[in-house]
Amino acid sequence: MSDAVQTQSNSKFNKRVFSGIQPSGGLTLGNYLGAVKRFVQMQNEDFETIYCMVDLHAITVWQDPARLKNNTRELAAFYIASGLNPEKSILFNQSAVSEHAELGWMFNCVARMGWMKRMTQFKDKAGKNAENASLGLFGYPALMAADILAYHATHVPVGDDQKQHLELTRDIAAKFNHDFGVDFFPMIDPVIGGPAARVMSLRDGSKKMSKSDPSDQSRINMNDDADTIAQKFRKAKTDQDALPSEESGLENRPEAKNLISIYAALGDQSLEDVLSDVGGKQFSAFKPMLVERAVETLSPISGEMNRLMLDVSEIDRLLKRGADKARAIAAPIVQKTYDIVGLLKP
Ligand code: AQP
C-alpha cells in the first residue's frame, strides 16, 4: 500500500499507541531499551497510550500457573517502575479483556496459512520440534494483530524482532478491509529504531538478548544487582581492538557494536556522539563506564519494582481499572467487527 493511501486511511483515527510484553518470566535490558523506554517516551508525547501484559501470548508455551500470575504482576510493576503512569497510560493484562481473543479468532479466519509459515519467530521458537509446537504459537501473530487493532491503534513501539509481525498486522488489516469492502482497520505505523532496536546477547553478538537464552550470562536481567551487572559486563565477549571513533569502524565487530549501542541507548545518545567520546579507548576502560551507566539506570527501577511487589492487591486493583478502561475502547470496535463480518451478536 502506498504512503499516500496509508495517510489518507489513517487520518480518521486518533493517534493511539498499543504495545505489550509477555509475562513469561524474567525481564531483560532488551525489553527495557527496545520497548519500555520508548513506551514511556510516547506516554509523555501527544499520544493516547495503551500497554498490555500479553498473558494469552505467554501461554503459547507452557507456563506454571502460579508463576504466570506472579510474572504478570511483576511485569506491571516493571512498567510502573520504569515510568509508566497508570493515570496517563492504560495498563492491563490481555486475558482480562476478552475482546482480544474474540477478534483474534476472526483474524485467524482472515490470515492465511502461507503468511504464518513465513514468520521467522515461529521457526526460531518452535525450532526442530515444530510438529510439537502449540497451535497458539503458530497463530500468535493473528492474536497480536487483534491486540493492536481492537483499539484502532495507529502506532506500535516494539523491538526490531517484531517487525515481521507488524507487517503481518498490516496485511491482516488490509485483507479484512478489502474482503468486507470497508475502511475499518487502520494501517499501523511500526515505531522501531534507535541504537537499542535489537540488543544482542553478551556472549554472542549475532544473537538477540533473550529471557529464554539458557545462559544467564548472555543477558542483563532487570532484577540483577549492581555486582551482577558489573560481573556480566566484565565478562561480556569483546575483541582485542580499541574502540573506533566512527560508526564505520564497528562493521564486523558485533560485540563492540552491541556494548556501544547499549551505552548510547542508556544515555539517550547517538552512536556517533558516543564514539566521538570513547573512540581510541580499550574495552578495559570503556566497560566500567558502561557498568556505571547501567547501574545508575537499572538500580532505581529494580528497587521500585521490589517495593511495588510488596502490595500485590494494589497492583491487582490498578490492573482491573486498566482493564475496564481498555474494554471501554475495544468493546464497540469488536462489536462493530462482528457486525461487518455478519455474525449475529446482540
Ligand atoms: N533483545 C532485544 N532487543 C530489543 N528489543 C527487544 N525486545 C525483546 N528482546 C529485545 C522487545 O521487547 C518487547 C516484548 O518482548 P516479549 O518478551 O513479549 O517477547 P520476545 O520478543 O519474544 O522477548 P524475548 O526476551 O526474546 O522472550 P523469549 O525469550 O521468551 O522469546 C518486544 O517489543 C520486543 O521486540
Summarize it.
The chain has 346 residues and is mainly alpha-helical. The chain contains 14 helices and five strands.
What portion of residues belong to β-strands? Answer: 5-15%
Strand order of the largest sheet: 1-2-3
Q: Unreliable segments (pLDDT under 50, ≥5 consecutive)?
A: 1-8
CA-based gyration radius: 21 Å
For the record, give the distance between the C-alpha atoms at the N and C termini, rounded to a whole number. Answer: 35 Å
List the keywords.
single chain, 346 residues, mainly alpha, two-stranded parallel sheet, 14 helices, 5 strands, 7% strand, disordered N terminus, binds adenosine-5'-tetraphosphate
Description:
The strands form 2 sheets. The protein has a 3-stranded parallel sheet with strand order 1-2-3. It has a two-stranded parallel sheet with strand order 4-5. It has helices spanning 3-10, 29-43, 55-58, 65-82, 99-108, 113-117, 120-126, 135-149, 163-180, 226-235, 254-266, 271-278, 283-308, 312-341, and strands spanning 16-21, 48-53, 89-93, 155-157, 189-191. Helix 2 (29-43) links the parallel strand 1 (16-21) and strand 2 (48-53). Helices cover 54% and strands 7% of the residues. It has 346 residues and is mainly alpha-helical. The two termini are 35 Å apart. The protein is globular. It has 14 helices and 5 strands. Bound molecules: adenosine-5'-tetraphosphate (AQP). Residues 21-22, 24, 28, 30-31, 34-35, 158-159, 161-162, 196, 198-199, 208-212 line the site of adenosine-5'-tetraphosphate (AQP).
